[in-house]
Design goal:
Structural class of chain A: mainly alpha
Distance between the termini of chain B: 63 Å
Number of helices of chain A: 6
Helix content of chain B: over 70%
Order of helices and strands of chain A: HHEEHHHH
Strand content of chain B: under 5%
CATH class of chain A: Mainly Alpha
CATH topology of chain A: Four Helix Bundle (Hemerythrin (Met), subunit A)
Oligomer: heterodimer
CATH superfamily of chain A: Cytochrome c oxidase, subunit III, four-helix bundle
Chain lengths: 221, 106
Amino acid sequence: MASAVAHADTHEHTHYTSTGLENRKVAIWAFIGSECMLFASLISTYLIYKGKSIVGPFPHTPWTSPDGHVFKPILNIPVTSQSTFVLLMSSLAMVLALAAVENRGKPGYVGTVLGNSKLWLAATAALGATFLGYQAFEFTSFVHEGLTIRTNLFGSTFFTLTGFHGAHVTAGVLWLLTLLSIDIKRGLTPKDTLLVDMCALYWHFVDVVWIAIFTLVYLIK
Amino acid sequence: MEDNAHNVDHPHEHPSWKQYKWVALWLTVITVLEVWIYYTSFSQSPLYVPTLLVFSALKFTIVVLFYMHLKYDHKLFRALFTGPLVIAVFTLLALLALFSHQAIKQ
């Protein structure tokens, strides 16, 4: 009886395609594929307009306005390097959260830090929120230094690209907090691996997009 | 069917904690190298941009293969990701070529 209920419960949550693959996992990969196109269009726009701003502030070079005000290069590489490191470490926390759920009850995971999915989910969300804090600091300081989305082509394309990425990180943090609340309420079990796996795939995608943005926007002069 | 499907979904074991730790270490080392060369005279070299692009592609590949488990997952997932990625990269290159061409004509 108990196994019949368990089977029905598994069947209720598992929907396989004709390929034998879980349809939600196929869907998240297709979604990530479409997101590649979105970010490629935003990065293309940034690169096409790179160096074509008529007025400053500029990303890597100083600029003197007609009224004699000197603007230093706007990008703050040390601060962005820290936020990049934070996002990379959040990906490590995410894979550990997935491993903790997937291996719940297995030797080496019971009663250990590695098996604490709540800890790793909370750590990933906290690191994601920290990244957003860095981004808020960066955007605020840019506005104070005279660069807004309407100032020049660099401002328009930069805020659009990094703003879209920040929105994706925000969605990821909300997704992680939802999983964390489920874990606190009823506990995530190996049967819930797919739920965490989908969130993990999305989170790592957000990470790889930032890897591209960090190089193309911040480091290439 | 479900057991079979599950095997197709997870054909191999995922990396261990030690492998994840090494991946994180490599990602950190490459990031430090990227930032370091930004501040050196190498940033004036014609090899600077290609080097950064190689580093970035390396980090991208490491995350996709090990953290997104694409190395261990079903080939359909690989196709669903690499297909649009290749189209996206070609679109990006085509747009850059198109707009640089127009700039030259002007």
